Amino acid sequence: MGAEEVTAAVVWDESFLAYDLGGDHPLNPVRLDLTIKLATALGVLDGITPVVPAPATDAEIERVHEPSYLSAVQAAPMAAWDVGHGLGTADNPVFERMHEASALVVGGSLAAAREIASGRAKRAVNIAGGLHHAMRDHAAGFCVYNDCSVAISWLLDNGFDRIAYLDSDVHHGDGVQDAFYDDPRVLTISLHQNPLSLWPGTGRPSELGGPGAEGTAVNLPLPPGTRDPGWLRAFHAVVPALLRSFRPRILVTQCGVDTHREDPLADLALSVDGHRAIYRTFRDLAEEITGGHWLALGGGGYELVRVVPRSWTHLLATVLDRDVDPATPLPADWVADTSGRAPNWPIPSTMSDDADVTFERWGGDADTPLDAAIRETRRAVFPLHGLDPDDPRD
Question: Which residue ranges make up each domain of the chain?
């Protein structure tokens, strides 16, 4: 951005690619590499000097993790037997320099948070972040340390006394919910595939927050097969009213793209166009409610070539106010360099899936599984915020 005032920051360094669970593990860091290369080729990052993170310190990670767990992570690559703590499993295999790579992801999200808290930026994005499943004392769901929770904890101590966390990953944002379940200063909202049909099996509307924090955990489980219009209908039926009631000082969003119809690990049916609409909605809500303060993190996404790079290039563009027209052709050089990574599928030709994201706003009277889910969540949580669950105006 040259000499202009910096209003948005991108946290990035190639060292993020060291968070590599190895072999044919679904969470392959190539998705990050291809995203940055696509965003660069399209000019989204022109003039942007990335914020290069430092690894989080042990004390910073221990904001949300037990010291004994850090010790287990640090020792795991040298252990000759099962180290426990969820490590050494198919989901969370041990890899060389695991602590260092994981601490860097946390450091990236902390760097993004510091850019906002310092006033150097209103928005910041770390696509390597979003590891929302890690628990206080164990790894889970491909996540070693919970960078989302560490960043939120730090923000609470640095000028942001009310924080809303929005999770659009296909899986429940269980680790972040667990970290702040008893904290009335943090509103966690997760839209995810119904837990009866998808790991981790949590995220029901009845999970509302602990004593003194009732109503600050919000869960909206969506039926398998939900498409863009249904996802957006559900979001707008629940989230904006709660945000306006809660009045957060900042939005922290986990922007997983495993909701896509091609994702191999889940069964929602969103498109790249739907993802773009979600990011624009996040931005609009931040502008309306938090004075523009928005910390965006990555998350899941396992169609590594056709989906993640396009979706997260839209995320980067949205954070930077450099929105990319969905009809934009993919750069020929990027396509040529990428084609070998997806030998069984053609590379898309544009930044769009040609999907219609138009949706009909919730009116309270439709008789569908989606609307039943909306009603259940509204009836569980809206009264705790002084809102009428059956009034479409709320």
Answer: 8-385
Buried b (16+ CB within 10 A) or exposed e, 339-368: eeeeeeeebbeebbbebebebeebeeeeee
- Based on the residue annotation, tell me whether 133 is a catalytic residue of this protein: yes
Q: Is the pLDDT of residue 138 over 60?
A: yes
Q: What global pTM score does this model have?
A: 0.97
Kindly report, residue by residue over 18-38, the tens digit of the pLDDT.
999 999 999 999 999 999 999
- Extract the tokens encoding 15: 């060292």
Distance between CA atoms of 267 and 67, rounded to whole angstroms?
Answer: 37
Q: Which fold has domain 8-385?
A: Arginase; Chain A (3.40.800)
Considering 99, 132, 133, 293, which one is annotated as catalytic? 133
What are the residues whose beta carbons fall under 8 Å from the beta carbon of 180, sequence distance 6 or more? 149, 152, 165, 186, 188, 213, 216
21: tokens are 């669970």
Quick check: 1 pLDDT over 50?
A: no
* Cis peptide, bond prior to residue 383, ω within 30 of zero: no
